[in-house]
Amino acid sequence: MNVLFLFGPQAVGKMTIGEILSEKLDIPLLFNHMTLDIISPFIGWTQKTFELSTQLRKDIFQAMVDQPENKGLIFTFVWALDVEEDRKEVENFKQIFTTAGIDVYFIELEAELEERLRRNKTENRLAKKPSKRDIESSEQELQTSHQKHRLNSKQGEIQEPLYLRLNVTNLTAEEAAERIFDFQQFGERRYN
């Protein structure tokens, strides 16, 4: 089973790159907003929304592990590395797979803020993420979280054996996906 955790700040390109990888690896993509946007229309953007989303993700991951015919998945998310609860959540997600003997590839994406603000308005993002269609609000959230949290790791902070950090500021989604695909195929730890 191929399991890729693709993380980084908002509008870095996780979903778009994940879509390309999903086709290349023939495994499904679960991007961050898929679970959030199912729940938020009913109860808004509350703490309970995030709790239910986390539980739904855990249930999906466990169901996949329980069915050995599954080929894997790509999961994208924003990780506030300065928030202990986020660290615990990522570890809990990972353990669902690793306790079953399944390797998890950690791919961290980074890009300059100006590029992320540009990508925040792309057609693909707005089509697939209803909550991002209010551009002004989405940009405000992006900038606030950029100032409030550390959304990319410090060098050496991520100690996962299958880890790649990739600056995608000047890469197309196709170029980034190709580099990640090569990494996933050959599996050596890299900090780019």
Q: Which band does the percent of strand residues land in? A: 5-15%
What is the CATH homologous superfamily assignment? Answer: P-loop containing nucleotide triphosphate hydrolases
Distance between the termini: 25 Å
The helix-and-strand class reads alpha/beta
Shape: globular
Report the top-level CATH class: Alpha Beta
Write the CATH fold name: Rossmann fold
Q: If you compute it from the alpha carbons, what radius of gyration comes out, rounded to the nearest whole angstrom?
A: 16 Å
Helix content, binned percent: 40-55%
What is the CATH architecture term?
Answer: 3-Layer(aba) Sandwich
In spatial order, strands of the major sheet run 2-3-1-4-5-6
Low-confidence stretches: none
Number of helices: 8
Total beta strands: 6
Average pLDDT confidence is 90
Domain count: the total is: 1
H/E element sequence: EHEHHEHEHHHEHE
Biggest beta sheet attributes: 6 strands, parallel
Assembly status: single chain
Can you offer a commentary on this structure?
It contains 8 helices and 6 strands; from the N terminus they run βαβααβαβαααβαβ. Strands 2-3-1-4-5-6 form a 6-stranded parallel sheet. It is an alpha/beta fold. Helix 1 (14-25) crosses helix 8, helix 2 packs across helix 3 and helix 3 packs parallel to helix 4. The protein has one domain (2-191): Rossmann fold, CATH 3.40.50. The mean pLDDT is 90. It comes from Alkalicoccobacillus plakortidis. InterPro entries: P-loop_NTPase (IPR027417). Residues 123-136 have a biased composition (Basic and acidic residues). Residues 123-153 are annotated as: Disordered.
